[in-house]
Amino acid sequence: VLGFLGGRLVEARRTIAGQLAALEASQARALENEKLAAIGRLAAGVAHEVRNPLGVIRSAASVLVEGTPATDPRARAGTFIVEEVDRLDRLVRALLDYSRRLQIVPRPVDLARVAGGAVALGGEALGRRRVAVESDGRPIAAGDPDLLTQVLLGLLVNAAQATSEDGRVEVRLAAEAGDVTAEVADDGPGIAPEIRDHLFEPFHTTKPGGTGLGLAMAARVVQAHGGRIEVPEGRGAGAGGAGACFRIRLPASRESAA
Fold first, then answer.
1. I need a labelling partner for 207 at 20 to 30 A (CA). Which of 90, 157, 192, 238 fits?
2. CA 159, 197, 180, 253: dihedral to nearest 10 degrees?
3. From CA 186, how far away is CA 149, in angstroms rounded?
4. CA–CA gap between residue 40 and residue 99 (Å, rounded)
5. Which residue has the higher pLDDT, 29 or 252?
6. 3-state SS, residue 191
7. Which residues, at least 6 apart from 47, have a Cβ–Cβ distance to it below 8 Å?
8. What pLDDT score does 256 carry?
9. Cα angle at 34 between 42 and 193, to 5 degrees?
10. Mapping DSSP to helix (H, G, I), strand (E, B) and coil, where does residue 246 land?
11. Which helix (H) or strand (E) holds 108?
12. Phi/psi at 109 (nearest 5 deg)?
């Protein structure tokens, strides 16, 4: 009897632990949804109240630049105004994109094809950097090819910006049991320990003029696919694994990509 009761007690504890974990995950999702809804309301309000005046300011500054010699201080001031208005417009668009609800209709996606497309789209941003795409097997993910291309392109551009003009960037694709992975690595200085825990937080950026929404948006897209982004250490593209590495882990598709 004591053994039976002890077994039931252990089983009950496991059940309670599982329910608590599910509750915590549900609360985390609810908090994330509430945060996104708040950002969405903020972005919509900003877009409505600010974009039209910004457009008027930009048009006036453009007219000033066109009718003024390049050496005139007013032309330089007008150019500065146009650049800053464009930066604010990019921020508003990034806010709207980040707050928009993602609806994923999964279908088989060949990650090698997605990676090739992202490298082609990043041509100018990648410049003379040596970009290598390696594939272990044929990783087929379940997801949206356009959104996954957007994520890989963003990671490629970040990697290029972290390296020298002739630096190295690697895309490593692999198929594992039930998962597929895509790593984007560079041979730059790596990620400082003090910012590692804040990489995917909205509005956190170390780039001049950056919105701080690129990695946050990438994490949102990957999570919407049922996957996650990891930042493994010692997996950079430099000697001995130096540099930064971002790993995307996605559910594998049970079907073949078209």
1. 238
2. -120
3. 18
4. 5
5. 252
6. coil
7. 92, 95, 96
8. 61
9. 90
10. strand
11. strand 107-110
12. -130, 125
Strand pairing of 168-175 and 179-186? antiparallel
Residue in the block written with tokens 């999964």: 106
Taking only the tens place, the pLDDT of each residue in 52-89 is 888 889 898 888 888 788 888 888 898 999 988 888 88
Backbone angles phi, psi at 163, to 5 degrees: -115, 175
Q: Kindly state the tokens that stand for 117.
A: 């497309």
> Locate tokens 């590692």: which residue?
196
Residue type, 70: A
Give the number of other CB atoms < 10 A from CB of residue 212.
16
What DSSP state is assigned to residue 237?
A: S
pTM score, whole prediction: 0.70
Contact in structure between 215 and 248 (CB atoms under 8 Å): no
CA–CA distance, 155 with 170 (Å, rounded to integer): 11
Is the CB of residue 142 less than 8 Å from the CB of residue 109?
A: yes
Among residues 106, 49, 68, 97, the alpha carbon closest in space to that of 224 is found at 106
Three-state DSSP class for residue 163:
coil
CA-closest candidate to residue 221, choices 106, 75, 66: 106
